[in-house]
Structure formats: C-alpha cells, structure tokens
Amino acid sequence: MNHGGGEPSVASLVERSAELKRTLVDFALSPRFERHLEQFKLEAADPYQELSEGEAIGVIDRFVLQHRLPNGKTMLDQFLAGRPDLTAADREILRGWRDPVEGIFEIHHKNRDSLVLLNLLDEQEYRVYSNMGPAAFRRLPKGGFVHVRLVPICPVPGAWLVSGSMSAYRKSGAAQIAQAALAVATKQPELVYRNPEKIEQAWTLMRKDRAAFVEFFGGDELVLPPAEAEERLNTYYRHRQEAVLALQPARRRPQNLPGVDAPAFEFPPELADADTTGIIYDETDGLNFYNEYGMLRALFADPALAAGKQYTDVLRGYLRSETIGPLPFRRLAAAHPDTVDAVFRKVLRQPNFTWAEHGEALMRRRKPWYYERAPSRPLRARRPPQRTRPSVDNGRTWTSTIENGDARARR
Known about the structure:
- The protein has 2 domains: 204 residues, no CATH class; 177 residues, no CATH class.
- It is built from 15 helices and 10 strands.
C-alpha cells in the first residue's frame, strides 16, 4: 500500500518492520549466539528473582539491538553484515533501530491508527505505531502512562514503532510515575539528552557544578581512601545545598526537602571495598569514579611495578571495562609522559608501543562505545559495573506484551 509517487505508506513500513524484526530476533536466538545471550541475561537480571514475561522480552530486545559482542559489534550489526540480500530500503529501516528511545510516556491522545506520547524524560512528543495495529492500544488507560521502547520507522520523519514490551499505568499513579521517571533520568541521563534544550541546560549546570567542585577541593582529580572520599563528597554536596537554600526565601523552598545532613553519596561495594577511589570531574566527561585508581597512579609513576600482577590486573581491568572510557588513561599519560610508554609496552606485550602514536587507536579499539556517543552532551558518571536488584513498581495495573507479531494482555 503506497502513497502517490511510489513512496511507501506508514502501514506498509510497519508491516515490513514486523517481518524484519521477527527475522532479526530468530537470528539472535540461534544456537550460534546462545552463549552470549545467556551471559547477557545473567548480567541483566537478578539471579534470585525470575523475570516476568515483559521483563524477559525487554532483555531480549536490548540484546538484539544494543548489546555488544566480544568483537565490538551489536547483534544488529552482525545481521546486516550477514544478509547481503537485504534491499536498501530494508537496510535503512534496520539501521534506524541502532538508537532506540526508552522512556516513560504520558498518553496525550489516541488517533485512529497511532498514539501521541509525551516522553517524561526528554519532554518531546512521539507519534507511535504498533506492528499489531490499533488493537494493541485499545486497552491503554485514557490519560495514563506507558513504559516502552521505541524505534524509528525509517524513512518517515517523526514516526516510531513499539519495540519489545509495553507496560501501562493508570492516571491515578501519576505521582509514582513522576518518581520513577526521575529515577530513570538520574540513572540514564542520556535518555534526557535527546532534547537539544536539555543538552544545553545540562552543559550549563555541569560547568557550574564542576567550577564549584574545583574551588572546594582545589582541583578536579582526587585519590582518597573510599571512606574519606565518601565523607568529603557528602560534605561538598551539603555545602552546595546550603548555598542554594540560602538564596531562596523560606516560604518558597520546596516541601519535604531532605535535610542537609542526609548523605548524597553512598559508594557501591566495588568502590567501598577498594583501597583507593579516584574521582575525576572532567570538563567534558563529567564526574567519574574509579576503584583502585591509586594503584594505577603508582604504576605509571614507577613502571617497575608492572612486575607485580596486582598492578597489571588493575590496568587490564580498566582496558576491558565497558563503563570506563579513555579519560583515566589520558590523564595518566599526560601526568607521566616519560613512563607511559614503558607501562603499556609491559602490560600489552608490545615493545614498540608509544602512547603518542598508538594510544588513540588503542582507546578506539577497546572503547568503541565511547566514540559512538560523541561528547556533544555531558556524560554520566563512570564507574565499574554494579549488579543491582530490579525495582518493583506497585503502580502497574497490567502489562501488554508485543513481540514478533504476538500481543497479549494480562491483569
């Protein structure tokens, strides 16, 4: 079904997207990738709690579209590379899925064949379709909310397709939804930065906070025992909160504001149990935390320490990490220009390695995700990965599952 002039209709693109998604999911669930999927499930889920149907579909959707395999490619990349028979139109549709939008949305209104949703995270509207057609949206509560992942319907501007599962919430749960949206935005600020206005606001706020941090601590890089680092950070943010409150008349201060004695920071175990914690507040990469950063500093100051496995293990761990970007390596190389080459030659077992000649290529090879998300926006704090229990939202009224042409609803 095409419009005049031969352009494909939204309906035909939705139908073709559903066919491509089924083929892509079948490819990802094939025995060839079974080991990678099982490992991804272990990392994504609580080992003591069974996933619901909707949560399991969400895990698979992230694995298919966003998870990076050991070769640095996503499952979507692998599929595109292995299917030379795909048409140019199909490839355009699939490439658009590389950057899904996930969020909590307010249902603004329902059209005959679509929804108009307001993303509570980036404050932008999305016109949304389903591969199951309008029937998939009939039971959504009027004026309510949905938690959903979306992919663009290329090449139609402003048209989006439900990807994975969709959880619905009634209007009466608005307060809980607002709290949940704030929690998601704090944990994943990149979801907010799709809105250009939010990006500029974030840059302005980060610059101000970094300037205050540098003034308070005397620099933008600290290495401290974890307990002292946590205490000093909480002292700093108490200082910041007191300064902000002092500028506001008491009658205009927010109600139920946490007391200034409430700790703002509490390190996770992988930071709290380390001998040292590094803190870098970079002008581009933002506020970052690194465990055992003191050992790295010592290693780069004295390359002879590379004979000790505990030092080389820390550096290798930083290189392997998918949450630590190039920043600490660049800082250490700049601070120790006379020894940086000796350290990497020893650890990488590459006698001709020089940071000046090979350092950037090393970072691009080990940290491809960093360069794909160019720092056109403030980056969230970086630290080693932490396994957390998924939160339980008691505001859920029912869940609609939409995947591979199948839709089900349950109370």
